[in-house]
Amino acid sequence: AGSEYNSPKTQHNYTITYYKPDENKVKTPDPNNKSIIDNTYIRWTSNDVNPDSISGYVYKNSFHAQSYWPQWAEGETITFTGSKLCNNATDVSGKGTYWVQWNKGWGYVDNRPDYDPYSPHTDLDPAVMNRGFKIDWAVDANGVPVHLPMVHFIKVHNAVNQYCGWIGETSTEVAGGIDFHPNQALPEVTAGDTNGDGVVDVSDVTAVVNFILGQK
Questions:
Q1: Hey, how many other C-beta atoms are within 10 angstroms of the C-beta on 84?
Q2: Residues in a beta bridge with 99
Q3: Residue 77: partners with Cβ closer than 8 Å, 6 or more residues away
Q4: How far is the first Cα of the chain from the last one, in angstroms, to the nearest whole number?
Q5: Which long-range contacts (CB under 8 A, 24 or more apart) does 166-171 make?
Q6: What is the pLDDT of residues 109-131, one digit of tens each?
Q7: Strands ordered across the beta sheet of 11-19
Q8: Residue 205 contacts residue 192 (beta carbons within 8 Å)
Q9: Measuring CA to CA, which residue among 52, 45, 42 is closest to residue 21?
């Protein structure tokens, strides 16, 4: 759970669906922004609580003329579900030429520079690094804190749905990740502890039998 998890502006269980574009269709350039060469490129729909944001288009930008649709994707639609944060971009110029994307507090990927003297967690690291996020902040689907001894995979999804003129859509860009505790010892797993309670007893036999019978 990042800094915006409990914000009233955050939408949980937000779902957005993108529709495969016809790459051969007639483009519709934006007459007010020459950098947008097709403002009806990829259609999307969502369950946004804001009636003005339940549908729209991903615009095609003149700086990126390649197809935006994942070439490995099968089917005519792609759907994502997750938490949606409120938009964080401001058109400072008022003319669409100078955009500023304000960072969130903490707990998000591609949110602050790697070296950030303004990070609220500078006291955790003498090098004043942006520490990203900790698995100590994990919560379940209902927002209840949970303890995770380890994680195997981390899924990153874009958390905003906004467009910034000639810059294009706001999208998460990740070059890699660093484990700040690579030598951390993992808790020993006891052989035969099938139900994960830390001991081997008759309850483990029951767990195996229930599994075979398809019971929980």
A1: 26
A2: 91
A3: 17, 18, 19, 20
A4: 29
A5: 166/33, 166/35, 166/36, 166/61, 166/63, 166/96, 166/97, 167/99, 168/59, 168/61, 168/63, 168/64, 169/58, 169/59, 170/87, 170/88, 170/89, 170/101
A6: 888 766 555 555 555 554 445 55
A7: 55-61, 36-46, 11-19, 77-84
A8: no
A9: 42
Say whether pTM exceeds 0.85: no
Q: Which of 95, 78, 80 is nearest to 164 (CA)?
A: 95
* pLDDT tens-digit map of 134-177: 788 889 988 999 998 888 788 888 899 999 988 888 988 877 77
Residue 170 CA to residue 173 CA, distance in Å, equals 9
> In the structure encoding, which two tokens stand for residue 147, read together?
């303890």
- Amino acid 88 reads N
- Which residues, 6 or more positions from 134, have their beta carbon under 8 angstroms from its beta carbon? none
Nearest to 163 by CA among 79, 39, 78, 62: 39
- Parse the chain into domains and list their residue ranges: 187-216
Measure CA 100 to chain center.
20
- Cα 96 from Cα 90, distance rounded (Å): 9
Alpha-carbon torsion (50, 55, 56, 58), positive or negative: positive
Give burial (CB, 10 Å; 0-12/13-18/19+) of 115. exposed
Tally of CA atoms within 13 A in the half-sphere of 28 that contains its CB? 8
